[in-house]
Design goal:
Structural class: mainly alpha
Number of helices: 10
Number of strands: 0
Distance between the termini: 11 Å
């Protein structure tokens, strides 16, 4: 990975975004919800004291971008962690025991898998109600079938290996075999999937907020900021452009970092980069 410049760049941007989220109270120039009436609404970038200008409510855009990272980072990471844990559990059980158990679990996941991910997330978030927690639940449900299927396929392959039979013959119980022998061998693809999905989850989380079924105003969120700027695109395009550019840059960086992790964990998947 050290020789992959794109991966290193992605990791640097990702670390910078996480640090920005952690240090937001100290590095933000202003309160993200404070109105600067002395500057006025829709002040252009580079206005005195406001590097990225102000929005329609005279709030500092840069401060809201910085504080928005505190929403974007956990909104993307928590669903990946939750779906990975649940997907490992159901995938290992279905892939190891197969038969009726495996069929029931995988057919249930297939039902969820059949729906387009974005539409399913929007529908679940709308049913549960707007809010950051409900958005993360919806995103976790969308990711679960992908993780479950990956783990199922890997578990089926691992369970047929001779060392699994040797462990059982040696007196090791089934729970111990699943934890000590199966889990470590199926963990790598899940890590790769999680890292490569991080950018998509940032975009999806911002999209839910943009549509009004995710994080709600006045919380500083990149999706809400992009949505707020729609009505003033002609006169103040930076209101939507700045958060949009940030979302794209962070998402692309996550993809680069994920590709690097994939190549490091599975050299067979290296691309021509």
């Amino acid at each position: 990975m050290a020789k992959d410049r794109l991966a290193l760049t992605g990791i640097v941007v990702l670390i910078a975004t996480i640090l920005m989220a952690v240090l937001a109270p100290w590095i933000s120039p202003y309160d993200p919800d404070a109105a600067h009436r002395e500057i006025g609404r829709l002040a252009p970038p580079l206005t005195a004291g406001h590097l990225l200008g102000t929005d329609g409510q005279a709030r500092d855009v840069l401060s809201r971008i910085i504080w928005g990272s505190r929403v974007a980072v956990p909104t993307a990471m928590v669903p990946i962690l939750v779906s990975s844990v649940l997907g490992l559990a159901v995938g290992i059980v279905a892939g190891y025991f197969r038969g009726v158990v495996g069929s029931v679990v995988m057919r249930t996941l297939d039902v969820v898998f059949a729906f387009p991910g974005v539409l399913l997330a929007v529908a679940i978030a709308a049913i549960l109600g707007p809010g950051m927690a409900n958005a993360m639940v919806a995103m976790s449900i969308v990711l679960l079938p992908f993780v479950g299927r990956i783990v199922y396929v890997e578990t089926v392959e691992v369970s047929r290996q001779d060392f699994i039979e040797a462990s059982l013959v040696g007196g090791m119980g089934t729970p111990a075999v699943l934890v000590r022998d199966v889990l470590p061998n199926v963990l790598s693809p899940v890590i790769v999937f999680g890292t490569t999905s991080l950018g998509a989850m940032i975009v999806l989380g911002a999209g839910l907020s943009f549509l009004g079924v995710g994080v709600q105003p006045p919380t500083a969120d990149w999706g809400i900021m992009a949505s707020d700027g729609r009505t003033v695109l002609a006169s103040a395009p930076w209101i939507s452009m700045v958060p949009g550019i940030v979302i794209v840059v962070v998402a692309v960086a996550c993809n680069f970092a994920g590709d690097g992790v994939r190549d490091a964990l599975d050299p067979r998947q290296r691309t021509r980069r």
